[in-house]
Amino acid sequence: MHTHFYVHRSHGTQTSNKLQKEISEFLCSLDGNLIDAVDLSEFQKIVIETIEKLNLKHPRCKPFKVAFERVSQDRSIRLSGFYHENFYLYKATLTHLSTVEYKSLSNN
User: Fold this and answer.
1) SS3 (DSSP) at 67
2) What distance in Å separates the CA atoms of residue 52 and residue 96, rounded to the nearest whole number?
3) What's the mean per-residue pLDDT of the chain?
4) How far apart are the C-alpha atoms of 51 and 64, rounded to whole Å?
5) pLDDT digit string (tens) for 37-69?
6) Counting Cβ atoms within 10 Å, is residue 97 exposed (0-12), middle (13-18) or buried (19+)?
7) Number of H helices, E strands in the chain
8) Is beta strand 76-80 parallel, antiparallel or unpaired with respect to 34-36?
9) Which of 8, 31, 62, 96 lies deepest, with the highest CB count within 10 Å?
């Protein structure tokens, strides 16, 4: 059972306006974070609301309507509607090192 979600921004394309640039910078700032599974809905809400605020800040740019969607037969959730970045939330488990078994591959 997963207890967390790992935030991953894999790559993006060149931005062409200030709105795209600010959204890209925002998503990049979240890359590598570990979100508690209990906070997943709140995290998604914060991302969507921040992008909506950036849409309002740049009224001359075409606004982005984003949403999170589960990727079929996968362990991830992706942000759809902003096609300049690949932004995923991967299911993860926070594991304490003392619970990991180590088995040596050598005979020593």
Assistant:
1) strand
2) 38
3) 89
4) 8
5) 999 999 999 999 999 999 999 999 999 999 999
6) exposed
7) 2, 5
8) unpaired
9) 8
